[in-house]
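Protein modeling request. Please complete all fields; requests missing the sequence field cannot be processed.
Requester role: graduate student
Desired output: 3D structure, token encoding
Chains: 1
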Amino acid sequence: MINLQSYFEAAGKWSCLAQDYILAVLDVCEVPEDVRDVVLSNAVLAAYESESGIDKEFYVSNPVKLMEATARMLGKNIKVSVTKQDISKLEDLPVLGYAAVRWDYNGKSHFCLVKNQRLMYNSLTTSQCCLNGKITTARLINIEVTI
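Delivered output (147 residues):
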């Protein structure tokens, strides 16, 4: 059994990149919008408990493993790849596709999910990194459902 308060505190601080990878899978697998929050929460918790691509501090050690585990949870199989790329603006991304984009500000960083060069998901209501910082890198995410 996990310590739920400690889990939520750590998830709130450090799970932004993991959430972006998971949400890209949910979108590709066409999980309905009205249940995505619950499925996202369950997928983050499942990955945390099994350490499927993330560790106990939500560091993403294996994004492919994380996304494949999420797809299996949905009864799907996927082929996925992730490529890191330095960028300075959203227009540096491919016109079509997903990317976890990192903003840096004042010694901190925050990732948000971008789809087709447009912000799709920010795990924070207000992020100082996104408001005042600069885009520095992206994780280009390619997902193909195989079943």
